């Protein structure tokens, strides 16, 4: 998936995350009623094995990278293109290597990691296929990838979820200093691919044994794949 204005969009997304860095954790707790921490633990455990070299891509303020470390990783690298997000992450851990970089062009050699994770970040890339291919390139054959992302559930839950994301979360963002950028959230979820399509994209990017499950009653999907 790509967009004709990819470069402009990437710049806008980076600036947006710089703006929301200081409120990012508070907004995550609010949006998920605190469940995001549990979801990150599940994602980390699905991909990380003891002693693994782990990449947490689009790491934001570092919560999933920390979950990977607690899951037994031998070393963890957190990568993000937002300087201010990384500033927040560095305050949380000195054990993790924090790297400023682009998911579409990872600054790592081929087969550098045994596992990779990405939490609530894959929907923000301007070229989904390229991002997945880069993650595959950075993994050893047999390496595991876990992707945690918001979905758009159907039925009554879907109606509530869309009202929550479309109205209540942006309203909360206006109250919390620096949170106005959260008006982008509903559009980013709506335009992102469905879980089944993301599974197909993973297969095309070089992953096998792909499976996904829903968390939070269907508002979040966890995809796991193995690098061929």
Task: Kindly describe this structure.
The protein has 228 residues and is an alpha/beta fold. It has one domain (6-151, 193-227): Rossmann fold, CATH 3.40.50.150. 44% of the residues lie in helices and 22% in strands. It has nine helices and seven strands, in the order αααβαβαββαβαααββ. It has helices spanning 6-20, 24-32, 36-47, 63-70, 83-90, 128-138, 155-175, 185-191, 195-204, and strands at 53-57, 75-80, 97-100, 113-119, 139-150, 207-215, 220-227. The chain has a seven-stranded mixed beta sheet with strand order 3-2-1-4-5-7-6, sandwiched between helices. The chain is globular, with a radius of gyration of 16 Å. Mean pLDDT is 88; it is low at 1-6.
Quickly list its features.
44% helix, single chain, seven-stranded mixed sheet, 228 residues, alpha/beta, 22% strand, Rossmann fold, disordered N terminus, 9 helices
Main sheet characteristics? 7 strands, mixed
Query: Unreliable segments (pLDDT under 50, ≥5 consecutive)?
Result: 1-6
**Derived structural class:** alpha/beta
Tell me the Rg in angstroms. Answer: 16 Å
**Beta-strand fraction estimate:** 15-25%
The residue fraction in helices comes out at 40-55%
CATH superfamily: Vaccinia Virus protein VP39
The coarse overall form would be globular
- Order of strands, widest sheet: 3-2-1-4-5-7-6
Order of helices and strands: HHHEHEHEEHEHHHEE
* Average pLDDT for all residues: 88
What's the tally of helices? 9
């Amino acid at each position: 998936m790509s967009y004709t204005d990819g470069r402009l969009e990437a710049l806008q997304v980076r600036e947006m995350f710089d703006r929301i860095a200081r409120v990012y954790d508070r907004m995550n707790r609010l949006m998920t009623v605190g469940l995001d921490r549990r979801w990150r633990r599940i994602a980390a455990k699905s991909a990380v094995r003891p002693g693994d070299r782990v990449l947490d891509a689009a790491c934001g303020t570092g919560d999933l990278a920390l979950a990977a470390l607690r899951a037994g990783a031998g070393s963890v690298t957190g990568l993000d293109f937002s300087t201010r997000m990384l500033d927040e992450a560095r305050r949380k851990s000195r054990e993790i290597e924090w790297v400023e970089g682009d998911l579409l062009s990872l600054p790592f050699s081929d087969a550098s990691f045994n596992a990779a994770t990405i939490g609530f970040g894959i929907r923000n890339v301007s070229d989904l296929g390229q991002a997945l291919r880069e993650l595959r390139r950075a993994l050893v054959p047999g390496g595991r990838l876990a992707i945690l992302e918001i979905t758009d559930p159907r039925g009554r839950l879907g109606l509530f979820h869309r009202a929550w994301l479309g109205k209540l979360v942006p309203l909360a963002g206006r109250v919390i200093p620096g949170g106005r950028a959260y008006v982008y959230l509903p559009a980013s979820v709506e335009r992102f691919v469905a879980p089944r399509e993301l599974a197909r994209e993973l297969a095309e990017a070089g992953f096998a044994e792909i499976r996904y499950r829903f968390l939070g009653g269907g508002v979040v999907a966890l995809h796991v794949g193995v690098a061929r």
